[in-house]
Design a protein that fits this description.
The structure holds three protein chains of three kinds.
Chain A lengths: L2 H11 L7 E3 L2 H23 L9 H7 L1 H13 L25 H4 L8 H11 L5 H12 L2 H15 L6 H5 L9 H13 L2 H7 L10 H9 L2 H8 L23 H6 L11 H17 L10 H4 L2 H5 L1 H7 L2
Chain B lengths: L13 E4 L2 E4 H19 L12
Antiparallel strand pairs in B: 1-2
Chain C lengths: L7 H4 L1 H12 L2 H4 L3 E3 L9 H22 L3 H4 L1 H30 L8 H22 L5 H16 L11 H30 L13 H15 L13
Helix pairs in contact in C: 4-6, 6-7, 7-9
The chains are: A mainly alpha, B alpha+beta, C mainly alpha.
């Protein structure tokens, strides 16, 4: 008998059951099950509650780590931040991922455009009323060529690496080679620390907004979220995807997905995300198609767990 | 009114085993799954043993 | 209608659908009061327990939805229902995974039941974004971190261009309506398919030895015992 014939025979033998039945109350069993599970869930909820850690705001971040905030803002201004280099769906940055000749990220285009310098720095500052010094600094910066702008930016970034993590220290950074950048950054820092930048990034052209893309991308470019996440063991390379804040169980069902990120070649590849997604797509397809996969579908016959499950049946039908 | 009886807001412990890095709460859930599975396999099922047999 | 012509009900779409539905799932198959004698193990309860967890997930989620996404941060009653929602989701996956293991080791796809397995597997896969969109609808640090981390995988595959994890409004819509609809629809299809095909009969011990004797054993077992209980269709406790 060939493998194919045998598989067919096994399949055919399972089509119908002509053996004995026993009485059974489906609705009663379902009611009992729903009630019991509901009670278990209520018990767990009362015993353990659920986590709810307050979100990080631009305001709290710029107050706690002003240097990190200003450095991040400089990255947005000079186009070296993660968002600025990201590529689609945000911008034309160079870091779009691909798998061999498959460039899905680029093909789907820029759906949520972000111009980091304009959206995070120059735009919010230009919208501030009054402040003639800021207005003239903005005009100077905008008039300058990109080479001049970058020279100012890099000189300011170098100066920033040497200051203490306080708003006062940042405001003391001045020099002839920095151009208007200190004025811009001092204003942006004050605006952020007062909570204005949170509002400016949330308010779009329309009154109502539920889209947090811009503000979350800025937060993610900085270190505020990541340092909290590291402390809570939530980083990607800490299997963080399946973890939760505090001591709560997390999304344990993501174990396989997050596992790939821990091992080579995924852990070191700039295309890790698309590679892991491709692997998981193939495995998910295999999972759905288990009934048709030779080898996998035969496993339950080779590992006799079924003898335990149906031991009563086998005992009773043995001659 | 509904404060947790057992506070899980503190930091979790972590188990490292080679490249595997599991939080203790997740580990408890995973172990519990295996234990419940095994109990369900071996525990005698009551009531229906003498019914419907020739 | 003339005797030679088609009777009107033959042309009725409604009658056609009713006939097909009744043929696939007659009432005693849909709501059986008996099941095969081999369904005698605790391992059979995890399907219905998953269903129970799903009911709790939807009930607690409905309560949270009636008050809006901000309520649970400020109300202790709201926080309780959030906790209930979280733990019932943990239970849903907990029971679903054990159910999955059980059905795998039974090779429950045998006998034309491949669609039962496939709808179950797709339910598991769709439940993952259903949970993920919930995590990122929480409006707290968790939501910030998870959305900004998970966006990279979405963007790398191009999905991020139309499924933006950083758009709270979009994610909330997916979480409270679109994905639950998909999960409930899949679970309904799964349960109806189980009802239609019945619980998979045990593997024949002879399947592992000589295939020739397999059919003989199957016939012998069936013929010798087909008397007790209902002669109706095979049934199962999900």
């Amino acid at each position: 008998m060939t493998y194919r014939e045998r598989t067919r025979a096994i399949d055919a033998a399972a089509r119908h059951w002509d053996g004995p039945y026993r009485p059974y109350d489906l609705i009663k069993e379902a009611t009992i099950a729903v009630t019991i599970v509901g009670l278990i869930a209520v018990t767990l909820a009362i015993l353990f509650s659920s986590p709810d850690e307050a979100p990080t705001t631009i305001r709290s971040w710029s107050r706690q780590n002003p240097v990190d905030f200003v450095s991040t803002a400089m990255g947005e201004l000079d186009g070296t931040s993660t968002t600025a280099e990201y590529g689609p769906p945000y911008d034309h940055g160079p870091k779009a991922q691909h798998l061999a000749f498959i460039h899905l990220q680029s093909w789907l285009g820029i759906a949520h455009p972000i111009n980091t310098a304009q959206d995070y720095v120059l735009g919010p500052l230009a919208a501030l009323p009054g402040q003639p010094a800021l207005r003239s600094a903005l005009a100077t910066y905008r008039r300058a060529g990109s080479a001049r702008q970058l020279a100012w930016d890099h000189a300011y970034e170098r100066a920033l690496t040497k200051v203490a993590d306080s708003a006062t220290a940042i405001r003391a950074v001045h020099g002839p080679n920095l151009g208007p950048v200190p004025t811009l950054m001092d204003s942006l820092l004050s605006f952020a620390q007062g909570g204005g930048l949170d509002g400016a990034l949330l308010a779009n052209r329309q009154f109502y907004s539920t889209d947090y893309t811009k503000i979350l991308m800025l937060l993610a470019d900085g270190g505020a979220l990541a340092s909290r996440a590291r402390a809570e063991h939530l980083l990607g390379n800490q299997w963080g995807m399946m973890n939760e804040t505090g001591s709560f169980p997390g999304q344990g069902w993501l174990w396989l997905y997050t596992m790939w990120y821990q091992i080579k070649p995924f852990s070191t590849s700039p295309n890790a995300d698309i590679m892991v997604m491709a692997v998981m797509f193939v495995l998910s397809l295999g999972f759905v198609l288990v009934p048709f996969l030779p080898g996998v579908r035969d496993l339950p016959r080779l590992v006799p767990v079924y003898r335990l499950i149906w031991r009563e049946h086998y005992r009773s039908t043995r001659p | 009114m509904f404060a947790a009886i057992i506070n899980l807001n503190g930091h979790a412990g972590y188990v490292h085993w080679g490249f595997i890095d599991l939080s203790v709460p997740n580990l408890i859930v995973i172990v519990a799954m295996f234990v419940v599975f095994l109990i369900a396999l071996v525990a005698p099922f009551p009531g229906h043993r003498r019914r419907g047999r020739s | 209608m003339t005797a030679t012509g088609q009777p009107p009900e033959e042309r009725s779409w409604t009658v056609g659908v009713r006939r097909r539905a009744l043929a696939a799932l007659p009432p005693d198959k849909l709501l059986p009061d008996s099941q095969p004698s081999y369904v005698a193990s605790w391992i059979y309860i995890f399907g219905v327990l998953s269903l129970g967890a799903l009911v709790t997930v939807i009930a607690s989620g409905t309560i949270l939805a009636t008050k809006g996404p901000g309520w649970w941060h400020t109300s202790s009653l709201g926080h309780f229902f959030n906790s209930l929602h979280l733990w019932s989701v943990e239970l849903f996956f907990f029971f679903m995974v054990i159910h999955l293991w059980a059905k795998f080791w039974m090779s429950a796809w045998r006998g034309g039941r491949a669609r039962v397995w496939m709808t179950g597997a797709i339910t598991f896969i769709v439940a993952i974004p259903a949970a993920l969109t919930g995590y990122i609808s929480q409006q707290n640090f968790d939501a910030q971190w998870i959305s900004t981390q998970a966006k990279d995988a979405m963007n790398a595959t191009g999905i991020g261009s139309f499924f933006n994890l950083l758009n709270f409004g979009q994610m909330y819509g997916y979480h409270v309506f679109l994905l639950p609809l998909a999960v409930v629809g899949l679970v309904a299809a799964h349960v109806l398919l189980v009802r239609k095909h019945g619980v998979v009969p045990p593997l024949l011990l002879s399947d592992l030895t000589t295939p020739a004797s397999a059919t003989a054993t199957a016939r012998g077992t069936a013929a010798g015992t087909a008397s007790a209980g209902s002669p109706g269709p095979v049934s199962e406790a999900e």
